[in-house]
Amino acid sequence: MTFRPAIKEDIVSIVAMLADDELGAKRENFQDPLPNSYVEAFEQIDSDPNQELIVVEEKGEVIGTMQLSFIQYLTYQGGTRSQIEAVRIRKDKRGEGLGEKMFQWAISRAKERGAHLLQLTTDKQRPDALRFYEKLGFHATHEGMKMHFK
To answer: Which of 69, 56, 37 is nearest to 98 (CA)?
Structure first.
């Protein structure tokens, strides 16, 4: 198993994983060809040194993905926090412990980049995910709020 930065050729595999669950199917537009908005987003992420779009490969196939963002701020004495988003595992690879390995890698990477914490959000409609994150050592310390514009 290999962790590496995503490349443009990985976009189809990444979007397929993002769309392959109950909630993702409602918000993603996985079609052939993919809408150009995905390519444009990839290019922005790829050009930003504070963003890391990661894929997990096994035997040359993309089987997982996640995005790490590094957020510099003034609080915590000018600290950096890392946020993990869009963690997905290909459906046929779920239940093999890959999620835990991905989070162990992400925690190490956040520390390596000097972050003082790693944060995430999870949809309240995903109680299994919440239990998984708690098992990994994450704590529900804040109540998150969002405002959607579309």
So the answer is: 56
The domain total for the chain is 1
Contact 67, 52 (CB under 8 A): yes
What is the model's pTM? Answer: 0.92
| Contacts (Cβ under 8 Å, ≥6 apart) of 28 | 15, 18, 19
User: For helices 36-47 and 11-19, what crossing angle results, to 10°?
Assistant: 110
Kindly report, residue by residue over 26-43, the tens digit of the pLDDT: 888 898 899 999 999 999
Q: What is the CATH number of the domain that holds 130?
A: 3.40.630.30
Nearest-angstrom CA–CA distance, 65 and 59: 15
Query: Does residue 13 form part of some domain?
Result: yes
Say how far apart CA 82 and CA 45 lie, in whole Å: 15
